[in-house]
Amino acid sequence: MFRVLLVLIFAIGLAGCMGSGVQEMQARHADHKAQQQERRANLVKRIAEADIPPLPKNWKQQVEAGVRASLRDPDSARFLFVETPSPSELAPGIQKWGREEVDGTTIFGWRIYFGVNAKNAYGGYTGNQPWEAIFVDGRLRDVSAFGR
């Protein structure tokens, strides 16, 4: 009987310690979520205020040509465009587009996520691999596979 009482007291004490940690974690999560929503609202506002030129009418053909230029077997490429292009604030100073570097100014453009299934060096299809294309000032500036 003494052991059962001792285990019960220990369990109640342990449960009391865990309750405050869960509440603290929930409060931190709520703060983090509020900060994310505020950052997202600011980003949407900056994008709405930016003067982003429209995408060219042949943007898909430009993207496909850019991808095909980097493939071992360009004729085997199959494209999957599942999302519509979205205006974006692009990360200046982090990426190089083409061979030119950007300065520290904020750049706005269009970001397009899509999939490419093409043959590898062994002649087998790789399955849809995630790619992204970036248009700035109405020009294709970068096409790259994720993880490269």
What attributes characterize this protein structure?
148 residues; alpha+beta; 2 domains; 5-stranded antiparallel beta sheet
What would you say about this model in short?
The chain is α+β, with helices and mostly antiparallel strands and 148 residues long. It has helices at residues 2-49, 59-68; strands spanning 78-80, 86-90, 107-117, 129-136, 139-145. The model is unreliable at 94-101 (pLDDT under 50).
Description:
The chain has 148 residues and is of the alpha+beta class. The protein folds into two domains: 1-49; 59-145, no CATH class. It is built from two helices and five strands; from the N terminus they run ααβββββ. Strands 1, 2, 3, 4 and 5 form a five-stranded antiparallel sheet that branches. A hairpin with a 2-residue loop joins strand 4 and strand 5. The protein is flat and about 80 Å long.
